[in-house]
């Protein structure tokens, strides 16, 4: 696989730890560092690249570490207000994504967050997109 190839960001099939949620397509270096998204440019911990980096599924679950509500946005999509969240995945990497629903007044730091696939309208049809949502059963 060349570094110019694009990797999918997620797959609908979950992991053994979280089988009912989509898995993120991350990477693992031979040094043990886990990252997201998958890429072959080089490990940010040790600098190895190419064959030292392999694709690994990441469970679509983690803890909310930061969030910001956006009320003014230069583009028509997504509609404002919406929330950008930063989540420390159970598998290690920290990711940023949009929240589903766009605004959740109950959202608190430390909440368990889970991945879900939503259909986002486009000019022609829809596109499946990954969003994060508060796991109401996961506690704080």
Describe the protein in words.
The chain has two domains: 10-58; 61-134. The chain has no helices and nine strands. A hairpin with a 4-residue loop joins β6 (82-89) and β7 (94-98). Helices cover 0% and strands 42% of the residues. The radius of gyration is 16 Å and the shape is globular. It has a five-stranded antiparallel beta sheet with strand order 7-6-5-8-9, with no helix packed on it. Strands 1, 2, 3 and 4 form a four-stranded antiparallel beta sheet that branches. The chain is mainly β and 140 residues long. It has strands spanning 10-11, 23-29, 34-35, 53-58, 61-70, 82-89, 94-98, 112-121, 126-134.
Question: What's this, in brief?
Answer:
The chain is mainly beta and 140 residues long. The protein contains no helices and nine strands. A five-stranded antiparallel sheet has the order 7-6-5-8-9, with no helix packed on it.
Report low-confidence residues grouped into runs of 5 or more. 1-5
Number of H- or I-type helical stretches = 0
Proportion of residues in helical segments: under 10%
Give the overall silhouette: globular
Order of helices and strands: EEEEEEEEE
Give the class from helix and strand content and strand pairing.
mainly beta
What's the count of strands?
A: 9
The major beta sheet can be summarized as:
5 strands, antiparallel
Q: What is the chains' assembly state?
A: single chain
**Largest beta sheet: strand ordering:** 7-6-5-8-9
Total domain units:
2
The radius of gyration computed from the alpha-carbon positions, rounded to a whole number of angstroms, is: 16 Å
Terminal-residue CA separation: 40 Å
Average pLDDT level: 90
Proportion of β residues?
A: 35-45%
């Amino acid at each position: 696989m060349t570094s110019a190839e694009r990797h999918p960001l997620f797959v609908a099939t979950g992991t053994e730890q979280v089988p009912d949620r989509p898995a993120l397509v991350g990477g693992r270096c031979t040094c043990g560092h886990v990252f997201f998204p998958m890429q072959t440019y080089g490990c940010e911990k040790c600098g190895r690249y190419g064959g030292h980096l392999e694709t690994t599924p990441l469970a679509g679950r983690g803890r909310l570490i930061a969030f910001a509500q956006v009320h003014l946005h230069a583009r028509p999509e997504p509609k404002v207000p919406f929330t950008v969240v930063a989540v420390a995945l159970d598998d290690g990497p920290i990711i940023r994504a949009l929240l589903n629903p766009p605004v959740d007044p109950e959202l608190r730091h430390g909440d368990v967050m889970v991945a879900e696939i939503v259909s986002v309208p486009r000019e022609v049809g829809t596109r499946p997109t990954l969003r994060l949502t508060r796991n109401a059963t996961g506690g704080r």
